[in-house]
Design brief:
Radius of gyration: 15 Å
Strand order of the largest sheet: 1-2-3-4-5
Shape: globular
């Protein structure tokens, strides 16, 4: 298995996985929407996506968004998406993708990676705990404003 950074040529593969990822979170299948969203992120250099590839088959991805923490005055990355195809889970792909995300963030002078995960995402929580992520939500609420 190898981990590669996605570019424009990988948009169809990333979009397919992104569509499956959204379905995992109870969204309707919509490959056109997934393709448009991923194309915009890659073409506008708005995110960094790494792919897990084995035998020329793309099996998972992780997506990072650059950001900052004003309070600490540091550069951070938001790890927003991690997905491995159902049949490839427990292959180590998720761990390798997460490790590559950390290497990339360090190499790009970030001080931290932040992520949110569902309270029912026990496999994800176990992986994040194993990789040294610390739970920090005790002092803050997550809030959103739909526009």
């Amino acid at each position: 298995m190898k981990i590669i950074r996605a570019d424009k040529t990988d948009i169809p593969d990333v979009a397919r996985l992104f569509d499956l990822y959204r379905q995992f979170y109870q969204c309707d299948a919509d490959l056109a929407l997934a393709t448009r969203f991923i194309s915009e992120r890659i073409e506008n250099h708005e995110s960094v996506i790494f792919l897990a590839v084995e035998d020329e088959s793309v099996m998972g991805f992780v997506q990072l968004y650059p950001s900052f923490c004003s309070v600490e005055a540091i550069k951070i990355f938001i790890l927003y998406d991690l997905f491995v195809e159902q049949s490839k889970r427990k292959s180590g792909a998720g761990k390798k993708l997460m490790e590559q995300a950390a290497v990339f963030a360090r190499d790009n002078d970030a001080d931290r990676i932040d992520l949110l995960t569902g309270k029912d995402n026990k496999p994800g929580q176990l992986l994040y705990d194993q990789l040294g992520y610390q739970r920090t939500n005790e002092d803050f609420y997550a809030c959103s404003l739909n526009l």
